[in-house]
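A protein record in our archive is deliberately plain, so that people and models can read it alike. The tokens are whole numbers drawn from a learned vocabulary of local backbone shapes. For reference, a complete record is included directly beneath this paragraph.
>
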Amino acid sequence: MFTRVLAVASFALFAQVASAATCTRTYTIQEGDYCDKISAANNVSTYQLGAINPGVINEACDNLVIGEQLCLGTEGEDCKSTYVVSAGNVCSQIWDNHRINSTIFSLNNPQVNEDCTNIYTGEVLCVSPDVLVPTAPGVPIHTGAPAAPSSTPLAKPAATSTPAAAPVNTPAATTTPPPVAAAAPTKSATADEEDDDEEEDCDEWEIVEGATDEDLPFCDEVM
């Protein structure tokens, strides 16, 4: 119970001090933001962002509200020289690259442990050669690896129906009438009559002994 009361008192005290400090730069939270993203984009360390926004940013940094304003730095306590940790980095490498000693680095980044084994990829560190960050508040602040930022998937557009292909009018097949068989030639009546006359003529002829083919009609040629 006593610990709880002490924590509340510490928070109230720090809130008064923070409110008394003049905020020199601010940032308005936008959709898709998370603490380290804001820090990296605005040259403010992960620690500093949490330290000057107590009660606004919780320990997990999962309570950001779109449109809410954050303080990025206060007068006299604003480290703008920052470095974003990459995979494989170690503290000695960071110190050497920025020409700072371990003591200054630790004072500007009090969240980093003595062995420097708890830095993480994406964390934003203050690499100023001077101590510029505010004093650590007496309440938990966000200085740890963030959870993966949540993203709301875009609504899928309504499926559009593909219009059916217009029916193709295929002309009806034309049927060719079968060829008409040619009628068998018929003898004309005149030809029949001529044949009959020839038969009658053949009947009227008498075959005379000694007659030749030239003397007979063609129907009674002498064999």
